[in-house]
Amino acid sequence: MEKKYPQIYQTLKKLSAVAVLSSYLLILSLSISYSEDRTLTLQEAYKLALNNHEAVKIAEEGLYQFEQTKKKAVANILPTVTADAGYTKYSTDKKSSFTVLQPDHSYNYSIKVGVPLYRGGREWSALRQAKYMLEAGEKGLSIVQENIIMGVANAYYSALKIAREIEIKEADLKRAEERKRVSSARFEVGEVTKTAVLRAEADLAGIQAELSRIKRDQFVAQDKLARLAGITPDFKLIEPPQKGLPAEDVDKLIRVAFDKRDDLLKSRAEEELAREEIAYTKGSFMPSLRLDGVYSFRDQDPGAPAFINKESIFAAVTLSYPLYEGGLRMAELRESESKFRESEFKRLNIRKDIENEVRESYYNLEAINSSIEFYKKQVSFAEENYNTVFKQYTYGLATNVDVIDANSVLVTAQQSLANSSFDLQLAIIALKSNTGVLLNEVKSEW
C-alpha cells in the first residue's frame, strides 16, 4: 500500500500519530486533574455527614418503625376479615342403613367479619400514643442530625486550627533559619560565642520537631472529619465565611430555645405519651364489646341427612368484663401514673438545662469576641517587637536570648489570635445549636 498509494499512506500515518498524541494528552490531563486535592467546604461536610453517617441511618430506621407502630394502631380500630377453609380425606367411608357414619371426604369454608365496638377507649388511646411516639421519633432524628452537625463543625474547625498552626510554625521555621544564619555569620567574625550558634540550632531543631508533630495531628484531624463525612481523607479544607454575632439578647435567645429545641419538644411529646398511657390503662377497667358476622359452608361426599343445611349466616355480639386479675390492672395504672410524673420532671429538667446552656454559650461567645481585639493588638506589637529585636541582634545590640524570647511571644500571640478566630465561629454555631435553629439553618443553605 505504501508503494501504490504513498500520499494516502503518509496521511494515515500522520492521523494515527495525532490520535495517539491526543489520547496521551487526554489521559495526562485526566490524571493531573484527578491527582489534585479536592476541596471540602463546611456545608458539603454537613451534607455528606447527614447522608452517610450510621447514627443518622439508625435514627431514620427508628422513625420508620414508629410509622409502622402508628399503622398497627390504626389497624386495631378497623374491622377484620378472616377466611377459613378445610378439607378432610378419610381412609374409607362408612355407612349404616340410616345415615353415613364416615364420608369419603368433607370440606368447609367460612368468612368472618369482626368489628370492635367498644374497648374502653383503649384503641383510640393507642392511636394517640402512636402519634406522640412518631412525633418523638421525628424530634429524635433531628437531635441526632444536629449532634452530627456539631461533630462535623468541631472536627472541621479543629482541622483548620491545625492547618493555621502549621502556617505559623512554617513561618517560625523560616525565622529560626534566619537567626541561625545570622548567628553563624556573627560567630565567624567573632562577635558571638559558639553557644549562640548552638542555641539557634537547638531552637531550629525544636521547631522542626514541633512542625512534624503538628503535621501528624493534621492527619488525625483529617481522618476524624472524613469518618464523620463518610469519605476518604484526601481533601483540602476551605475556610468558611465569617458569621456575624447574633443581634438578640440572651433572654430572647432563651425564649427561642424553648420554642425550637428538639429535645424539649421531644420531652413534651413523651409527656403526652405518658398521659395517654394512663388513659389506656384505665380502659382495662372497662368492658369490651365486639360484633362478629359469619358466613359458613360445609359439605361431604357421600352426603348425609344431617348436612341438609349446608350453609349458614349468623351474627354474634360478645360482651366481656374483667372481674378479677390479681391486682394487675391497678399496678399497671399506678405504674403509668408514675411514668407520667417522671416525664414531667424530665421536661422541667431539660428546660432548666436549656436555659443554662444558652446563657453559657452566649457569655462564652461574648468573651471570645472581646478577646480577639486584644489578640490582634498583641500580634501587632509582637511582630514589631520581634523585627526590632532581631535587627538589634543583627548589629550586636541584643542577645540571642532576646530574639528567642521575642519570637516566642510572637508565636504565642499568633496562635492565640488564630485559635480565637476559629473558636468564635465555633461558638456562634454552638449558640445556634443551643437555641435550636442550627439544623434548619444548615438545611436552608443547601
Describe the structure.
The chain is α+β, with helices and mostly antiparallel strands. The chain contains ten helices and eight strands. The chain has helices at 6-35, 42-52, 54-75, 122-188, 194-229, 250-260, 262-282, 328-394, 400-434, 438-444; strands spanning 38-40, 80-89, 94-95, 100-102, 105-118, 235-237, 288-301, 311-320. The chain has a four-stranded antiparallel β-sheet with strand order 2-5-7-8, with no helix packed on it. Strands 1-6 form a two-stranded parallel ribbon. A hairpin with a 4-residue loop joins β3 and β4. α3 runs antiparallel to α4 (122-188), α4 packs antiparallel against α5 (194-229) and α4 runs antiparallel to α7. The longest helix is centred in the middle third of the chain and has 67 residues, at 122-188.
The CATH homologous superfamily: Outer membrane efflux proteins (OEP)
Looking across the biggest beta sheet, what order are the strands in?
2-5-7-8
Q: What is the C-level CATH assignment?
A: Mainly Alpha
Q: Which class best fits the helix and strand makeup?
A: alpha+beta
Radius of gyration: 40 Å
Query: What is the helix fraction of residues, given as a range?
Result: 55-70%
Give the SSE order as H and E letters. HEHHEEEEHHEHHEEHHH
What order do the helices and strands come in, and which of them pair?
Blueprint lengths: L5 H30 L2 E3 L1 H11 L1 H22 L4 E10 L4 E2 L4 E3 L2 E14 L3 H67 L5 H36 L5 E3 L12 H11 L1 H21 L5 E14 L9 E10 L7 H67 L5 H35 L3 H7 L2
Parallel strand pairs: 1-6
Antiparallel strand pairs: 2-5, 3-4, 5-7, 7-8
Helix pairs in contact: 2-4, 3-4, 4-5, 4-7, 4-9, 6-8, 7-8, 8-9
